[in-house]
Amino acid sequence: xxxxxxxxxxxxxxxxxxxxxxxxxxxxxxRGNLPDPDLLAEIKTGQHNREQVARILGSPSSIAxxxxxxxxxxxxxxxxxxxxxPEISERNVVILRFDSNGVVAxxxxxxxxxxxAIQPVDRATPTAGNEIGFIDQILGxxxxxxxxxxxxxxxxxxxxxx
Length: 162
What we know:
By secondary structure, the chain is of the alpha+beta class. The chain contains 4 helices and 5 strands. The chain is flat. It starts with a helix and ends in an 11-residue tail after the last helix.
């Protein structure tokens, strides 16, 4: 009798514990385009052109066209645990530089350790002109409305010439 009593309460408790533990497992999110390392090893400097690289690796995440043409393959993997902010677990950038003939000149890889923390500046950029307050905006809109009424425009015509 006692054995049956324990097993009837133990089974739902184990199921509840399994659900709680599954809910606490991190959610993984992968974004970007990171080429397969085996395919990347096929690309040789001085031998492959843009078309061949695109056929092997696929289209790049970004292309820099100023100066020497450069292709970037960027990927990022984040882990999110419950309601906490996502943490970057992996970040990779593969950089392919092409010479003026469109042939691969250099291949380099950057990882998470190459990233730098950027500290934003809290200054405000001053703008030219006057700062318009709430009352000024209301009075300005009322004068525009009055100006339209004087011209006989009901608001459905063309916008006023500013």
